Amino acid sequence: METWFFENQTGNFGIKIRVESILFHEHSDYQEIAVYDTLEFGKVLVLDKAVMFSDKNEFVYHEMLGLVPLFSHKKPERILIIGGGDGGVVRECFKNPFVKHIDLVEIDKKVIDVSKKFFPEIACKLDDERVRILAEDGIEFIKRVDSGGREEEKYDVILIDSTDPVGPAEGLFRRDFYEAAAGALKADGIFAAQTESPFFNKNLIKDIGKIIREIYEKSSLYLASIPVYPSGLWSFTAGSKKYDTKVINESYNNFNFTGLESDLKYYSREIHRTSFILPNFIKEILK
C-alpha cells in the first residue's frame, strides 16, 4: 500500500509526495511536527502540514536567505535569526568571514531537537560556541532589543526564517514587527525575510514591499527556485539602512569566492546579482 503526503496550498492546488516511512510525528506546544522519508526528496520536515525543506534541495533556501544579505554588508559580525530552528541559515551565515556571533530565536524548541536528530547535516552549527539559542517568541525579543536602546545589543543583520503567515508566525508579517526589527538593527544594518510565492501570495508581497520601502532607505526583492515550495518560485524581501543588497560589498574584493563556491550548491557571485532581476509581473506587484 502506497503512502502519500499531501500539502493543500491554496484550496485548489497542492503538492503530493510519496512517503517511504514516517520517521517522526508529534504535536508540540505550538504546532504539528513531522519528518517523512520520501522517495523523491529524501527526508522532509513538515510543520502544520506544510513542507519546510527537504534533504535534496534545502540548500537553495538556506543559502539565499543567509548569504545574500550578509555579503551585501560591509562587516556583518552580529546576526539575529528569528525562526530557523533547523539551523540551516545558521550554517550558511558562518560561511561569511566576518560573522562572530549569532542569536537564534526559535519559539518552538522541539523543532531544534527534531532537526538535530533527523537533520544533523543541516543543524551542524547549532552547538557552535558562537551561537546563542533562545527558545522564546521572536516578536517579543525584537521589541525588547528595539526599546532597550543599547547599541551593543543591536545587530548588523536580522534574518526572518519563518513558516507561512499563519499560526505562530503570523505576527512576523506585520508592520509593527518590521518597525521593531529596524530599531533592533545598527545604523548600517540589513533586514531580510522570506516572503512567499509571487504566484500565490501577491498581496502579501505587495504589502510587505510597501512597508519595507517606507522603513528603509534601500529595499529590494530577490528570487530563488525551490521545487518543494508552492509554484517553485520563492521570494525574499530585503531592507537596508545603507547598503545596496543587489551587489556584493566591496569589502569582499579580496575574498576567496572560488574557495567558498566549492562549498555551495546554489549561491554564487553571479546568482547574487541575477536573483534581483525580476519578471515584469513581479515588478507590477511591487508598484
Overview of this protein structure:
This protein has helices at 58-72, 88-93, 109-118, 138-148, 175-183, 202-215, 257-261, 269-274, 280-286, and strands at 3-8, 14-27, 32-38, 42-47, 50-54, 78-83, 101-105, 131-134, 155-161, 185-194, 218-225, 233-240. The chain is of the alpha/beta class and 287 residues long. The chain has two domains: 3-54, Spermidine synthase, tetramerisation domain (Spermidine Synthase, Chain: A, domain 2); 58-286, Rossmann fold (3-Layer(aba) Sandwich). The strands form two sheets. It has a seven-stranded mixed sheet, with helices on both faces. It has a five-stranded antiparallel sheet with strand order 1-2-3-4-5, covered by helices on one side. A hairpin with a 7-residue loop joins strand 11 (218-225) and strand 12 (233-240). Helix 4 (138-148) packs across helix 5 and helix 5 (175-183) packs parallel to helix 6 (202-215). The longest helix has 15 residues, at 58-72. The protein is globular and about 60 Å long. The mean pLDDT is 94.
In summary, what is this structure?
With 287 residues, this protein is of the alpha/beta class.
Q: Report the CATH topology name of the largest domain.
A: Rossmann fold
CATH architecture of the largest domain: 3-Layer(aba) Sandwich
**Major pleated sheet:** 7 strands, mixed
Summarize model confidence as the mean pLDDT.
94
Distance between the termini: 50 Å
Can you list the strand order of the major beta sheet?
8-7-6-9-10-12-11
The domain count comes to: 2
CATH evolutionary superfamily of the largest domain: Vaccinia Virus protein VP39
The CATH class of the largest domain is: Alpha Beta
Give the helices and strands as they follow along the chain: EEEEEHEHEHEHEHEHEEHHH
Percentage of residues in strands: 25-35%
The structural class is alpha/beta
Alpha-carbon Rg, integer = 18 Å
Helix content: 25-40%
Low-confidence runs: none
Q: How many DSSP H or I helices?
A: 9
> Based on DSSP secondary structure assignment, what is the total number of beta strands?
12
The general outline is: globular
